Amino acid sequence: MADKKIKIGITHGDINGISYEIILKALSDNRICELCTPIVYGSNKVAGFYKRDLKELQQFSFNIIQSASDAGSKRPNLINCIDDNVKIEPGTSTLLAGQYALASLNSAIKDLKENKIDAVVTCPINKANIHSSEFQFIGHTEYMSAQFGDETSLMFMISDDLKIGLVTNHEPISRVASLITPERILHKLRLMKQSLQRDFTVRQPKIAVLSLNPHNGDDGLLGNEEQEIIIPALNSARYEGIMAFGPFAADGFFGKELYRKFDAVLAMYHDQGMVPFKALTGNDGVNFTAGLTAVRTSPAHGVGYDITGKGIANEGSLRAAIYAAIDICRNRSINEEAAASPLPSYSKESWGKDISASDIKAPEEESVL
User: Least enclosed by CB within 10 Å: which of 110, 259, 333, 343?
Assistant: First the structure.
């Protein structure tokens, strides 16, 4: 794969959101076609509808193809996979938009399974209108896991400077504590270590683990999960050779920029990880599903109904998702080729040579008035 041009499938997500605007803007950058062969699974009619309001893109056009096998390398390709009589209602959630989003996704997954494309980049869906008898999942992450027979996966938010994985994904906060178990934490740490090595070529990754409760539980005053669940999971992880440190109280951890000392961070629940990630990475963040047989990335934002059709959507996250998919495909290929030459083992004594003793344990909380 290192020698061939990677084919990246792009699903159009919710057609009434900002997907087509960011797709058109991102793919108008000639550098994309220099690095990969992009194939959009969508509708030329919908693309034309949104292009009309983007004056700077009037010269842009897709190469319309019937199959991924026909994709050209000179300009972006598009496969029509929905009805030509599509009804477009910008800024509105409709059941038809959910059906069109699923049709696009299933077409790309089919080609991914048949090795016609190398990776898929998914544009945002509306989890409410896509829900159906066929799609009884809470997001792309869970649907992709089921499609490829991967029992579990890791929702891994990535950028050049920060990588955050989640123990629980899209779960109501009322259920989070009951879902945090030593087994689940350990499994996510295994997936994270594997991904950092395989997908990002980090030879011996250092992972920080956040606490569940405020102030790290305050020795049990604010909760016992740290002592009874998280620390036992960390001990098991270290026994397996996973360099996992913590637990760290999230506010002090990010406030003091301790994340810069680690290759990745494992958060206990969605907002604990997503809020600092989006605040710190801006338009460069990417949602990556680690642990999958296939490569799937996505921009780290939603459908954007409130700004649809206004021409102000930022395509940076989609562009970063395309670049990330290319890099991960290449890294996996390189690692597969190097599998016959195992990396040197590391002794436990070498684990913390770049981390001071004060970084390994959770910092004491400052007094709160």
Answer: 343
Task: Say which residue the tokens 């599509």 belong to.
Answer: 86
Order of strands across the sheet with 286-290? 63-65, 77-80, 36-42, 6-11, 119-122, 296-299, 286-290, 154-158, 163-166, 264-267, 206-210, 243-248
What is the residue-wise DSSP string for 323-361? Answer: HHHHHHHHHHHHHHHTTTSPPPP--GGGTTTTS-HHHHS
CB-based contact 270:173 (threshold 8 Å): no
Task: Please report, for residues 173, 224, 272, 277, the alpha-carbon distance to residue 214 in angstroms, rounded to integers and kept in the order given.
Answer: 14, 11, 11, 19
On the 0-12 / 13-18 / 19+ scale of CB atoms within 10 A, 189 is buried
Q: How far apart are CA 33 and CA 322, in angstroms?
A: 11
| Among 167, 265, 268, 264, CA closest to 217 | 268
Residue 368's pLDDT band (cuts 50, 70, 90): very low
Q: Can the peptide bond before residue 363 be classed as cis, meaning omega within 30 degrees of 0?
A: no
Q: Which of 287, 294, 290 is nearest to 317 (CA)?
A: 287
pLDDT 10s digits, 315-327: 999 999 999 999 9
Mean pLDDT of the chain: 90
Tell me the pTM: 0.89
- Reported as a single tens digit per residue, the pLDDT across 66-115 is 999 999 999 999 999 998 889 999 999 999 999 999 999 999 999 999 99
